[in-house]
Design brief:
Pnp Oxidase, Chain A; alpha+beta; 153 residues; globular
């Protein structure tokens, strides 16, 4: 890995950069696990409401099954150099029970409203408890920028 020239960012800058990515990016890798079936990882579209990540998947998907059984999840933005990892517990909302603001924000961002589709969908909300962010090896120290749901500064 090329690390020459990387100047480690302070926590506040890492937080600002992570929040900007959460507000603007489209995809997040979702890692779930089931006690009998083991780990599962998929990319999903997401929206960020300033406090939590909102995703949506088929109510019958492996991801939906897993978060109902084991709500602890890990999320990763899709860049292996500019890493942002979130960890938290999933809250599940049936497509007809999701808070209106969350569903509208998701639909506005993607031009797709799962509530209007045939079949059942599950909205998944994850408020991070831990966030890690780093760019290359020089930033591994200090990579935790949220602990116990509180941003570090």
């Amino acid at each position: 890995m090329e690390t020459t020239g990387i100047v480690p960012r302070q926590t506040a800058e890492r937080m600002r950069d992570a929040l900007e990515r959460l507000a603007t990016e489209r995809d997040v890798w979702v890692s779930t696990a089931h006690p009998d079936h083991g780990p599962h990882q998929v990319p999903l579209w997401f929206s960020w409401d300033g406090q939590a990540v909102w995703m949506c998947t088929s109510a019958t998907s492996v991801t939906a099954r897993n978060v109902r059984e084991e709500p602890r999840v890990r999320l990763a933005l899709p860049d292996t150099f500019d890493v942002v990892l979130l960890q938290g517990e999933a809250e599940c909302f049936a497509d007809q029970e999701v808070p209106e603001g969350a569903a509208e924000a998701f639909a506005d961002k993607f031009g797709w409203d799962p509530r209007r589709e045939d079949g059942s969908f599950l909205y998944i909300r994850v408020a991070p408890r831990t966030v890690r962010a780093w760019r290359g090896e020089p930033e591994l120290r200090g990579r935790v920028i949220m602990r116990e749901g509180m941003w570090l500064e």
